[in-house]
Amino acid sequence: MHTSSLQQNILAELDHELAVTRKVLERVPEDQFQYQPHPKSMKLGQLASHIVNLLAFKQLFVDKDERDFLDPNAPKPGPSPTTSAELLARFDQYSASLRQALQASDDEKLTHSFQLRRGEQVLMNRPKGAALRIMGLNHSIHHRGQLTVYLRLLDISVPGVYGPSADETGSF
């Protein structure tokens, strides 16, 4: 009987989600980066950048034991990309770095605790593998869903995410 490890399962899930996310990001037109469907919504470019920057955040769950949002020395993403090429280049760079960190980890390390804090306030304390899935993958999937709505509102063809989209099949 073949058994999969926690690490292998997360890598397989990550690979699927990265491929789908890249397809969605490829559709984001840079001439619409300032598009904002509602005053409380992020602009299209901000949302796409946030999805990409979350990859670096996910890597913290693998490499570190904690992240304090009040730490002035904590790593911060660079300026938001201003072109589609920059957006996709950062996505590819952060994806490769995250995959490498996850491949260098193992099941035992992924069961160690990760704390997300704001000073003394603990916002989350979970095993690294659970943090990666909940605050990492699920968080990115949520924002990717928002991004597909932005694309739809801009009448841009939406790629299939978990099967063909109406744009790919001609029906809904």
TrEMBL record:
KW Glycosyltransferase (keyword) present: no
InterPro entries per record: DinB (IPR007837), DinB/YfiT-like (IPR034660)
Domain of life: Bacteria
Pfam families in alphabetical order: DinB (PF05163)
Sequence positions that bind a divalent metal cation: 50, 139, 143
Keywords: Metal-binding
Gene Ontology MF terms in the entry: metal ion binding
Keyword set includes Transcription regulation: no
Classification via SUPFAM superfamilies: DinB/YfiT-like putative metalloenzymes
Similarity section: Belongs to the DinB family.
Protein name: Damage-inducible protein DinB
Species of provenance: Hymenobacter coccineus
